[in-house]
Design a protein that fits this description.
The complex is a heterodimer. Chain A has three helices and eleven strands; from the N terminus they run αββββαβββββαββ. By secondary structure, chain A is of the alpha+beta class. In chain A, strand 6 and strand 7 form a beta hairpin. Chain A is elongated and about 65 Å long. Chain B is 11% helix and 54% strand. By secondary structure, chain B is mainly β. The chains are: A alpha+beta, B mainly beta. Strand 1 of chain A pairs antiparallel with strand 1 of chain B.
Chain lengths: 176, 303
């Protein structure tokens, strides 16, 4: 083969190979397991003689999922955490509900929850599967969630400054 | 699937190939993924990229073991590299949150397919998952333009450069690749040797905004034989590479600043290659064998 022809052939083969070689293929759609943020509420306990307490918050979709993500295809909850704040010597029980349906409950000494406790490691925290389904579907549909805690404490009078914090940790499968 | 191509800028000439903006979008999406990870899982997800990119960047630096003693030599080169994506690059053992059972599960790396969903062993209402992979490839490619200048006292220098600086698009991160190397003829001291011998040292650095900082270094020896218009060469080299990631994790179990250094798998390599020299045009190719096997194919214009 003549040298000039060999040169042209070599150049064309290489340019084709490198341009093709230098290309990657990215999936058209792929899901990121995005951390749910903002499913985090603190409920004050009213001081005084009434051992019962309750509280509710409204959590909008924009509070728990960033608008940067195109679509949400799945939702998973992997942890529920409970923490008490303030000094108290008695016990506490609580039912955590979404849109009126219980999805978690907890019970035990107030001081046991002074350091945040997880359902993964603390047997005094339990989940209720039907309520979890309501919670998951609510997040999946990006609806405003009404989260409330209803419960009681064992000793009165209740001092000032007591609060209960509930955190729900999860992921959404989001497409970019 | 979206095909993206590497954006090359060499000697002031921009070479833009279709889909290059999508390449930069891929980098931004990568940051979105990494932010969801704590350090351990980010390491597992990204380690194969560090291994394969490191092997690629330490490749293609020479096309001959011969370095002239004297005389002006100049060539402009374009080198493509490719490292094979094996099955072991597609999945890793990720950790679940503390207290979750099981404590680890196998899920997709950046080269993998769908992420795995794992349910808690004692409570099916609780589950956790890894992110999907984003790159669908059997071979992980790279490419770089090179400039080779020699020779003085049997020494030549090589440079690489590519950047996205100059692209006026806020969605396009700033990516800059540069490399520099030098090779010295050993056979000039042993004129009776039937082969050419040389040694070389080459360094590469790539940055992508504040997310990625990559470095690679290789030091090796080359041996070759010129056979008319053809040439065969080989070599052995020590090498290291490191991919540094810096981002802020939103993992609620461990939020905050994350700084990872991922060392590339290759610490040494053997090279075997050949070149065709047609006047001022040169075509060369090689295979590199180490912990990662990769191939290079290059084209040079000049001497």
């Amino acid at each position: 083969m003549r040298t000039s022809a060999m040169r042209r052939l070599a150049a064309s083969v290489f340019l084709t190979a490198v341009v093709g070689w230098g290309c990657l293929t990215i999936y058209d759609t792929f899901h990121i397991a995005v951390n749910i943020d903002g499913l985090d509420a603190t409920f004050p306990i009213v001081p005084g003689a009434n051992p019962s307490y309750s509280g509710s918050v409204e959590i909008r979709a924009s509070d728990y999922i960033s608008g940067d993500f195109a679509t949400i295809d799945d939702v998973r909850i992997y942890d529920i955490r409970v923490q008490t704040m303030g000094t108290y010597d008695g016990d506490i029980t609580g039912s955590v509900r979404v849109n009126g349906i219980e999805f978690a409950s907890f019970a035990g000494p107030w001081s046991a929850f002074a350091e945040e406790q997880s359902v993964l490691t603390d047997e005094t925290i339990a989940v209720n599967p039907p309520g979890m389904t309501i919670l998951i579907n609510g997040i999946l549909e990006e609806r405003t969630l009404f989260v409330e805690v209803v419960g009681g404490v064992s000793q009165t009078p209740i001092p000032n400054g007591l609060e209960v914090r509930i955190r729900v940790l999860g992921q959404v499968d989001a497409e970019l | 699937m979206r095909t993206i191509c590497v954006l090359l800028i060499s000697a002031g000439i921009a070479v833009t190939v279709p889909g290059s903006v999508a390449a930069q979008e891929g980098t931004t999406e990568l940051e979105e993924i990494l932010e969801q990870f704590s350090g351990d899982n980010a390491r597992g997800y990204m380690q194969p990229l560090a291994d394969l990119f490191g092997a690629n960047m330490n490749s293609g630096w020479f096309r001959s073991a011969y370095v002239p003693e004297e005389g002006f030599q100049l060539s402009i080169e374009l080198v493509g590299m490719g490292a094979r994506v094996g099955d072991d690059h597609r999945s890793y053992a990720a950790t679940t949150p503390a207290g979750f059972e099981p404590g680890t599960f196998s899920t997709a790396t950046i080269f993998g397919g769908p992420g795995t969903v794992v349910s808690h062993a004692g409570n099916a209402s609780l589950s956790y998952a890894g992110s999907d992979g984003i790159i669908d490839a059997s071979w992980f490619p790279a490419a770089a333009p090179q400039l080779r200048i020699g020779s003085l006292a049997g020494t030549e220098v090589i440079g690489r450069f590519a950047t996205t600086i100059g692209i006026d698009n806020e969605d396009v991160p700033t990516i800059t690749l540069w490399g520099a190397g030098a090779r010295h003829s050993v056979s000039q001291y042993f004129p009776r040797l039937p082969v050419d011998l040389s040694v070389g040292l080459m360094y590469t650095k790539l940055t992508a905004d504040e997310l990625v900082n990559f470095t690679a270094l290789t030091i090796g020896a080359q041996v070759g034989k010129r056979l008319g218009d053809f040439e065969v060469y080989g070599g052995g080299a020590w090498e290291r590479s490191a991919l540094d990631l810096s981002y802020t994790s939103t993992d609620p179990s461990n939020p905050g600043s994350v700084m990872l250094e991922l060392d590339g798998a290759n610490s040494a390599r053997l090279t075997a290659g050949g070149a065709v020299n047609a006047g001022f045009l040169h075509l060369f190719g090689e295979v590199n064998v180490g912990s990662v096997t990769n191939f290079s194919l290059g084209f040079a214009v000049g001497s």
